[in-house]
Write a structure and sequence with these properties.
- By secondary structure, this protein is mainly α.
- The chain contains 4 helices and no strands.
- Helix 2 runs antiparallel to helix 3 (about 65-90).
- The radius of gyration is 14 Å and the shape is elongated.
- The chain starts with 12 loop residues before the first helix and ends in a 5-residue tail after the last helix.
Length: about 110
């Protein structure tokens, strides 16, 4: 069963990954204007790639293992932790505009 991490976070792994990829695309463009450290954006990119690879390994029911599941869960937990960091430190303070929230797939 997939876990939901709050009202703003989609419930499925695929949707969480899709949201993270949207955020990354926006952060690459807006990081300077929003005063986000490049190292944070780079780290987020690595976390997304790790979660994506782990998610792909879990798609094959014939070959996936309990280790694959643990790796997927750990990768998504790390990615979501970074998403919470961005949301709490850069999206809410200072608050983004309603249009920016919608672009980030968040409710204004």
């Amino acid at each position: 069963m997939e876990k939901e991490g709050g009202n703003w976070l989609p419930g499925s792994y695929a949707k969480q990954l899709a949201m993270a990829k949207v955020w990354l695309a926006i952060l690459v463009i807006k990081s300077t204007a929003w005063k986000i450290e490049t190292s944070d954006v780079d780290e987020f990119s690595v976390l997304i790639n790790t979660a994506d690879a782990a998610h792909i390994r879990m798609q094959n029911k014939g070959t996936r293992t309990a280790v694959d599941r643990a790796n997927r869960d750990a990768a998504f937990a790390a990615m979501i932790t970074k998403m919470r960091f961005f949301k709490n430190n850069y999206f809410n303070i200072p608050p983004r505009t309603a249009a920016e929230f919608v672009t980030l797939l968040l409710a204004p």
